[in-house]
Write a structure and sequence with these properties.
The chain has helices spanning 17-29, 48-63, 75-86, 101-135, 142-153, 157-180, 188-226, 229-235, 240-279, 283-293, 296-322, 329-358, and strands at residues 3-6, 9-11, 35-39, 43-46, 67-71. The protein has 361 residues and is mainly α. This is MlaE family lipid ABC transporter permease subunit.
Length: 361
């Protein structure tokens, strides 16, 4: 038995929305069929939008090895149908049969493996270019680096200042409340300061930069790919790694330690304010206690790991931007850039923290 879809009434641009649902339902009901037919006997008016919509579903059926018959179609509409079908090149979302669960897992593993290999290749290529630029410093685009520093640092400072001020404020307040039960509220100064310098301030500053710069790099490079600016640059002999990617990496390597130091100071001010309000310790006493009990190595650890965070954020942001293939990909890869950056920041930060403790730093 051949299942039939009746193409009735008008199929024009303004009337297609309910017809899409009808076609979806028809496809789902007949996904296991061998043959289906489209009957045009009751067709009213049809324009190019209607023809293209029908062609889309005919192609989907054919890709699922289902034979499609066109019945009672006029010669005029048959010519239109054949003409549009022969020039149908748009890649619509393909509705396919559901894959088995294990097949999906296999595809995910295979895609992840390929993606990781491509990412390693991308990193290796950048390392080669960095050595090349060290041998040929005249090729380094200093103006572009300064421009990227300005973009990455200046707009983010108010956000970092407010966020870290509040985090320092709340952390010191919570610590003082807990330690006050044991009559040791005063030691909250060195405890919260060391935590801020070593872990919280560098990590939160890097997360804020990841949310802004990684997404920005992906969107910028992705847009350049879509508008074929990158292809044009390659055609003219420009290397996009040297012109687009390495200046962004160097910019974040330079700017991250400065932002982390700025974040340290903002959190310190937050702590000072709450300690004065809650414990009645003056700003001078606070600074004297910091000077006496908090060693310089704690602030150095946060600043020293900041360049590594910068490299990570810039590489992931640029790599995801180069993966963009169409306008709809920009949102997807921008989200991936931010999520991947934060994920790897957590891992790298944990590894550095464990190593620093083991090494006594």
């Amino acid at each position: 038995m051949i299942n039939q879809f009746t193409v009735k009434e008008d199929w024009e641009y303004a009337t297609l929305t309910p017809k899409i649902k009808e076609l979806d339902d028809f496809f789902k009901k007949n996904i296991a069929s061998q043959t289906v037919s489209f009957d045009f006997q009751k067709l009213g008016q049809i324009d190019s939008s209607g023809i293209i919509l029908l062609i889309k579903y005919v192609i989907i059926f054919e890709k699922n090895n289902i034979e499609v018959l066109l019945e009672n179609i006029s010669s005029k509409h048959k010519k239109m149908f054949d003409l549009y079908k022969s020039n149908y090149v748009h890649k619509d979302e393909i509705i396919s049969k559901e894959s088995p669960f294990l097949e999906k897992i296999g595809k995910e593993v295979f895609d992840s493996s390929n993606s990781f290999k491509n990412f390693l290749y991308f990193i290796g290529k950048l390392i080669v270019y960095i050595f090349y630029l060290l041998k040929h410093p005249s090729k380094i685009r200093f103006k572009s680096i300064v421009h990227q520093i300005e973009i990455a640092a200046i707009p983010i400072l108010p956000i970092v200042a407010l966020a870290l001020f509040l985090v320092g404020f709340v952390t010191a307040y919570q610590g003082a409340e807990q330690l006050n039960r044991f009559g040791a509220a005063i030691i909250v100064i060195e405890m919260s300061t060391m935590s801020m310098f070593r872990e919280i301030a560098p990590f939160l500053a890097a997360v804020i930069i990841a949310g802004r710069s990684a997404s920005s790099y992906t969107a910028q490079i992705g847009t350049m790919k879509i508008t074929e600016e990158i292809s044009a640059m390659r055609t003219m002999g420009f290397d996009i790694d040297i012109f687009l990617i390495i200046p962004r990496i160097i910019a974040l390597i330079i700017v991250l330690p400065l932002i982390v130091f700025f974040a340290d100071m903002a959190s310190l001010i937050g702590e000072m304010v709450i300690v004065k309000i809650h414990l009645g310790i003056s700003y001078t006493q606070f600074i004297e206690r910091i000077y006496e009990y908090v060693e310089i190595r704690h602030i150095l650890l946060g600043i020293l790991k900041a360049p590594l965070f910068g490299i990570l954020i810039a590489i992931i942001g640029c790599y995801r931007g180069l993966q963009v293939k169409s306008g709809t990909d920009i949102g997807k890869y921008t989200t991936k850039a931010v999520v991947d950056s934060i994920f790897w920041l957590i891992i790298i930060n944990a590894i550095i923290s464990l190593l620093s403790i083991q090494l006594g730093f």
